[in-house]
From TrEMBL:
Keyword presence, tRNA processing: no
Source organism per UniProt: Cupriavidus gilardii
Domain Dihydrodipicolinate reductase C-terminal: 132-265
Molecular function GO terms recorded: 4-hydroxy-tetrahydrodipicolinate reductase
NCBIfam families associated with the record: dapB
Stated name of the protein: 4-hydroxy-tetrahydrodipicolinate reductase
Length: 269
């Protein structure tokens, strides 16, 4: 029998991290050995997950995990602390799965260098839902045949990071195909240029933050006399993300450096 994967979850009481922690605790091939939560520090992981066989307690910072052996760290905290946590986990010898949004391409370049120096893998997934994985693949296919597109990022009113990690990843991946062309270059528009959105990896991105949304992304491709819309919308629950995150945990040890996109470890995609 293979040794269970020892997992530490950052944001162990969060909306997504909490659901994942319960998933890890109940997985036959994993053991939840640590969790980060400032608010729940000192509470047992068994109490937080509802799984009596889960060892250990939640701690306030990743520095406190230095004495706890773990194989994979899952980053599900906040954008302002995510990069620090990832770099510390790599320094402590773990592979890393990233679910936190808000990290830039420059951040990932720094993380990639650290991961390669540590001979560890980092799997960065802006979204673990299968519908998002398919949207990303379909969008890459479309970008090979169409020249103009823009992205709309939808999220709840209180989401402070813009755009979402899902949209950052999508823009990055489209940029690996090519930059979108514009009929009217930004320096030639009449009026506030900000209304054309932000340019990310060669794509114009527009972020909507309103009550009534949870998470969503739409990429619109335009051509003469035709238009293609690819759209993902999430519900209120976080369970759809668990199976993809568990797959990422199982596969990240096969990688070296930063790899972006869950599809990179999914068979058939």
């Amino acid at each position: 029998m293979n040794t269970p994967i020892r997992v530490a979850v950052g944001g162990v009481t969060g909306w997504a991290g909490g659901e994942l922690a319960r998933g890890v605790a109940h997985a036959q091939d994993m053991t939840l050995v640590a969790g980060l939560s400032r608010g729940a520090a000192g509470q047992t992981l068994a109490q937080l997950t509802g799984h009596a066989g889960t060892p250990g307690k939640a701690v306030a910072s990743i520095a406190e995990l230095a004495g706890t052996p773990y194989d994979v760290y899952v980053e599900y905290t906040k954008p302002d602390i995510a990069k620090h946590n990832i770099l510390q986990a790599l320094a402590q010898g773990a592979h890393v799965v990233v679910g936190t949004s808000g990290l830039s391409d420059e951040d990932y370049a720094e993380i990639d260098a650290a991961a390669r120096a540590a001979d560890r893998g980092v799997l960065a997934c802006g979204n673990f839902a299968i519908t998002v994985v398919l949207l990303q693949k379909f969008a890459e296919m479309a970008a090979r045949h169409l020249d103009q597109w823009e992205i709309i990022d939808y999220a709840k009113a209180g989401k402070v990071d813009v755009p979402s990690g899902t949209v950052r990843e999508l823009a990055y991946r489209l940029g690996q195909v090519k930059a979108a062309t514009q009929t009217v270059p930004l320096d030639q528009v009449k009026g506030p240029v900000e209304t054309r959105g932000a340019t990310m990896s060669g794509t114009q991105v527009h972020a909507v933050r309103l009550p009534g949304y949870q998470l969503g992304v739409e990429v619109i491709f335009g051509a003469d006399g035709q238009r293609l819309h690819l759209k993902h919308e999430a519900g209120d629950g976080s369970k759809p993300y668990v199976s993809g995150a568990l797959l990422a945990i199982r596969k990240v040890h096969t990688l070296r450096g930063v790899v972006r996109g869950l599809d990179k470890v999914m068979e058939g995609l």
